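Throughout our pipeline, every protein is held as a single compact record rather than as scattered files. Such a record has a labelled line for the sequence and another for the backbone structure tokens. The remainder of this section carries one protein's record, kept here as part of the documentation:
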Amino acid sequence: MSQRDNNAEAYWRANKRLLAKLLVIWFVVSYGFGILLFEPLNAIHIGGYPLGYFFAQQGAIYVFVFLIFFYAFRMNALDRKFGVAEKD
């Protein structure tokens, strides 16, 4: 196996690891906070609204948008690390 193949394999492995972590966060926020922990989170109020309601209606969207930007930032760093970054 050549150095280029090893580099591509390591790049893909790092990408899959990052995706797995972000998907776990996405699942916990959307399914965990929005559905499973809805009632316990409603005991906490933020800005007059129960936290469970906030996560189910709006908070999860904020987390998802953050995850998109975080993924783009981390992938740019991975691209530079493995020498596959786009030219500016």
Observations:
- Residues 3-36 form the longest helix (34 residues).
- Residues 59 and 87 are 36 Å apart (CA to CA).
- The chain has a mean pLDDT of 88.
